[in-house]
Amino acid sequence: MKKLLLLSFLSIAAVAPSFGQQVVNYVGPGIPDTCYASSKVVRTRVLPPAAFLANRPSATKATIIVTYKDFTPEAQAAFQYAVDIWQSLLVSSVPIRINATWEPLGTGVLGQAGPSSLYTINGGGERISNALYPTALVEKLVGGDINRNAPDINASFSSTFNWYLGTDGNTPAGQYDLVSVVLHELGHGLGFLTSKDYDATSKQGSLSTPPSIYADFMKTGAGLSVADTRIFANPSVELGTAFTTNDLYFDSPLTRAANNGERARLYAPTTYAAGSSLSHLDENTYGPGDPNSLMSPQFASGEAIHSPGPIVLGMFSDMGWFNTAVRNQIFYSDTETPSTFPVTVRVDSDGTITPGSVKLNYSFNDGATTTVTMTPTGSVNEYTATIPNPGLNVRVSYYVEASDNETRRIYTAPGRNAFSTVSNRYSFFVGPDVVAPTLTHTPPTYLFASSLPYTITAQATDNIGVASVTLEYNVNGTARPSITMTRGTGNNANTYTAVLSTAAGPITAGDVINYRLVAQDNSSNTNRTTLPATGFFAVPVVEVRPAADMYANEFERTTPIDFVGLGFSIATPAGFANGAIHSTHPYANNADYTYQLLVPIRVKADPQIARVRFDEIVLVEPGETGSVFPNEDFYDYVVVEGSLNGTTWTPLAPGYDARDNANWLDLYNRSKSGSNSAAVGTPSLYASRTISLLDKYKAGDVVQLRFHLHADGAAYGWGWAIDNLHIQDNTVTPTAQALQGAGVSLFPNPTAGQFTVQTRFDKPVANLEVVVRNAVGQEVLRQSQAAVKGPVSLPLDLTKYANGFYLVSLTADGETATRKVMLNK
Questions:
Q1: What is the tens place of the pLDDT at every residue in 356-368?
Q2: Are the beta carbons of 794 and 756 closer than 8 angstroms?
Q3: How far is the C-alpha of 187 from the C-alpha of 632, rounded, in Å?
Q4: Between helices 178-190 and 73-89, what is the axis angle to 10°?
Q5: Which long-range contacts does 630-635 make (Cβ < 8 Å, 24+ apart)?
Q6: pLDDT grade for 769, boundaries at 50, 70 and 90
Q7: pLDDT tens across 228-257, in order?
Q8: Cα 326 to Cα 345: distance, rounded to the nearest angstrom
Q9: In this structure, are residues 142 and 118 in contact, taking their beta carbons and an 8 Å threshold?
Q10: Mean local confidence (pLDDT), 787-800
């Protein structure tokens, strides 16, 4: 199974509902790890921890809530027994929620589980900032729920295996112990995961960006941190070698303490094992019967292990499951007023706080650091100290530290960066403010007239504070009254919204809304930021047009607008002689690009007519061999979709990728650089595709169509190009000698009035005549051109005529070819 790598931050941020300034950023979904059955038969038994056996069921330090789906009562009892073991060992004030499903899985798969999401934390009690943390661990560190009671771990277990469902560990040969497998899989969901990938062709290894908290402790036999990009480029062959030398370790203080001073050997076989390598302890070092064998990659029949073991618990403690969180109450912003600055913190420890260890460290203008022992305030675990008045024009930096009696580790707020022994610092400036607000906003590419009123959303922050954010706009160049944007509250305090509506005047299809955002701060200098920095965002207003019986477009013109969407445009990139629909080249990871045709199609009954035909180039990441659309291992894909309501979209045919054409796949693979491909499309790669409308829709249905490119978070390529689009186009093919092979096209078709007739003559033609007739045969337009050779483009205008079908006839040297055009104003 492909692993998560090179993640991108999404625009979702949350402040955990607890004491302090914890900033939690959602990075992406978690990827489950898979547990496979071994063909070995062993009879080993490792008992649960003694404290669990002595105190069950009351000895719980954490609450784990499981939502069971389709489990038998016996299987649920075994699952719950494993849950009880974990909640007797973990410490968390926030309930851990698990979705567990009992269902058929793949061949040899016992179970799979992983965190629902991955996050980074800054200033929230974490030891290492900007590492990837699983949901349950994030909630433990920040002391609050961050996903509104949604599942923290998703797990599924095979309903078809020969399970031993008892809880005594006396597992017979030939059966697999469910308690052990559940303990193992929940370990992955709690944080025993690497977020990595390996390309067997290029031998390159990759880690997610940023790396997981687990990967931050991974070292080679020589003691080199594989997540340190100063040592290992990411991705790189060197990293791939480190992944496959059978010489990789988890190295942390508490792990060594639990392992007689030694590092924990990880599973890193010389042949990379997707789904197993790196995210497990070494199978040979910690085999069946070893007290530390729970997190090895395979389970044998007859094997029972009901304890994570001291090594895994040490690893978990160093990742944060044993923690002393320093939560900062006052996080200062820049100020223009000199004063003293009291700093108050709460220190929440899973152990006991070392007396005198809570200290405030501060400096002025990056000078010498002053350390002050903080004093208790009288509230539980709360301490305070004061930064003296620094005067004007001074940069103040500070951090707070504390330690516990159990680990003797120093914890700081904010946390330190990985591979650094120096703490990060909070910082603020005292003096006249010259810093303009930070303003971010993603403008819409287009707006449907039916979507009005439409809410414009922006994010604005400032070191002093934001005074206002204003939306200034005009419609077709005519100014409308400015709108003061409304600030959100609570977790959305940096979010500003304004509603674009028709209250100040009509806005209809064909209009263009031009707007900009202006943020002003609270300083005496009234600093301002304008977005965009110059000019305006221009957003066309569009609408779905009346249905047509056919559509054809050669994409030689970019107007009028027949398509709307994100990530596509009608363009002629370098190396191409003609226009076509092109995705962004290369496309981005974690993206869904769509390009919607604004002309719905009324489906014909004739299967020879009810078809979508186009030429295309598809250079997108291929999925696993044998993968089936739309499974997770299909990875990136392109697909043509239809909709009856403009909201629910259905594939007209299964999606596909570069594997659909041998030339595409060969070029994609030959041009790989790391996990990505540098292949560039050329016209010689075009291949034709025909898709039936009647496979999904019936005659008479009015269907909206769109092109859709989906990209996951791992690898990318050049993308998709689409040309010569013909939908239910049954126009006459030219047979006259002068037009033979010349090709006659009309675009756009349907048309709002203005369209072009295009052809080409390799030999001179004495006279070319174009005649347009309406549906009853009446001539409405005639145009002639003498002495023609080479390419010909004839612009025509039917704007003043009524909607309907028209026949366009081209006559050259007495020979005629006819095309049909739909006028749809």
A1: 999 999 999 999 9
A2: yes
A3: 22
A4: 50
A5: 630/654, 630/655, 632/1, 633/1, 633/2, 635/2, 635/712, 635/714, 635/715
A6: confident
A7: 999 999 989 999 999 999 999 999 999 999
A8: 7
A9: no
A10: 83
